[in-house]
Design goal:
Largest sheet: 7 strands, mixed
Number of strands: 19
Mean pLDDT: 77
Shape: elongated
Helix content: 25-40%
Number of domains: 4
Order of helices and strands: HHEEEEEEEEEEHEHEEHEEHEHEEE
Distance between the termini: 70 Å
Radius of gyration: 33 Å
Structural class: alpha+beta
Number of helices: 7
Length: 378
């Protein structure tokens, strides 16, 4: 029995008792209950005709925990509603409206705590009477909207040493190492070209000048394998929070490195690492792919064969706690290797922390090429 039916039944009961026992004072509440129980639902049904609500949202991408605004537009029917509310999937609480639904627009703020692609149903308009005896839900206007929630970027924190604000490892990570990597990015000779004013003397081809061919300089080709490589391994997740932490850590490290000399990012299922050099287009695409990584059965391992043999450092970000790099990852790194896992590893001191994960430097490969310039990233 609904509330309106219960009120009608109470009114009938009071009226019958008043008639049987000749209790005239009971007629007043009995008739009042009857009128309220009949008129309130009828008014709500009539007020719901022609009433609607529409959401206007201009953003298509947001970051985890980042507030964003959208607009709700409410249109009342021919008969004003006595009370109402908006049922908005983006917010937990119900948005109450004043009598008559005279609100035209309202700005609402929302946020998402986890990344991923969200399919958001249109809002609905709830029309009811002041006593909440009868409710009528009007479907909202507009299509289903999609919103991509990107993983949050967290700062990389290094342990303080001797009270210093930043350790030498932190300074090496943010400045020195990546500047040196930027200098190592062009090491392979790709022919000769006319000398350009301001070119370093070390690039002048003195033999050509001695032969009388004029002043020429060596043209060098970019050697991308000298840049850091960030690998994300999403297999074997114990908890969904661990995968989210690993994704945030990979995104934070990749962005930091891309802004300081560039890096490469290898994600699950991809056969080739994506080069990130600080450009907005490449980073935006990589950030979106990071947002869509899910914990699914049979998650493929990173195709490390597509990364080649790296002369630069490798950051292996795992969604599960492991003590060492997989054999395939260990084989591609000639320089320093860094293992990043959710939480902390017992008995080991972390070099840095980011997004709930800890990074541990494992050192370079045994038997790496002698004479190669070493880069201490951490």
């Amino acid at each position: 029995m609904s509330r309106a039916q219960a009120i009608v039944a109470a009114g009938l009961g009071l009226t019958v008792v008043a008639r049987l026992f000749d209790a005239e004072p009971l007629y007043v509440p009995g008739v009042a209950f009857l009128l309220i129980g009949v008129l309130a639902p009828a008014w709500s049904r009539l007020a719901a005709r022609g009433a609607s609500v529409r959401r206007r949202m201009d953003v298509r991408r947001v970051t985890e925990d980042e507030p964003f605004e959208f607009e709700l537009s409410v249109r009342s029917g021919r008969i004003p509603a006595l009370a109402g509310a908006v049922l908005e999937p983006l917010v937990a609480e119900t948005i109450l409206l004043g009598p008559g639904l005279r609100m035209s627009t309202r700005r609402v703020t929302a946020s998402f705590a986890r990344r991923g692609l969200r399919r958001i149903e249109p809002p609905a308009l709830l029309v009811r009477d002041p006593f909440d005896l009868h409710r009528r839900v009007c479907p909202g206007a507009g299509p289903v909207q999609e919103l991509l929630v990107l993983p949050r970027i967290d700062p990389i924190r290094f342990p303080e040493a001797g009270g210093a604000a930043a350790t030498p490892a932190a300074a090496s990570f943010r400045r020195g190492a990546n500047r040196e990597l930027a200098g190592l990015a062009e090491v392979e000779i790709d022919g000769l070209r006319p000398y350009r004013e301001g070119t370093s003397a070390s690039r002048i081809h003195w033999a050509a000048l001695a032969r009388g061919d004029g002043l020429l300089e060596r043209r060098l080709r970019a050697d991308s394998d000298a840049r850091p490589l960030v690998v994300l391994d999403a297999r074997g997740v114990a908890q969904p929070e661990d995968l989210d932490a690993a994704v945030r850590a990979a995104a934070s490290i990749a962005l930091e490195l891309s802004l300081h000399g560039g890096c490469a990012l290898l994600l699950p299922g991809e056969r080739r690492a994506t080069a990130l050099d600080g450009g907005q287009g490449a980073w935006a695409a990589a950030h979106a792919r990071l947002a869509l990584i899910e914990d699914v059965p049979g998650m493929p391992a990173p195709f490390l064969s597509g990364a080649g043999v790296r002369r630069g450092p490798t950051f292996y970000v795992a969604a599960r706690r492991m003590q060492r790099l997989p054999a395939a990852a260990d084989a591609i790194a000639r320089a320093s290797r860094v293992l990043v896992v959710p939480g902390e590893l017992a008995g080991r001191a972390a070099t840095f922390a980011v997004a709930g994960c800890s990074g541990y430097e494992l050192g370079g490969r045994v038997g790496a090429r002698r004479g190669a310039r070493s880069v201490a990233v951490l």
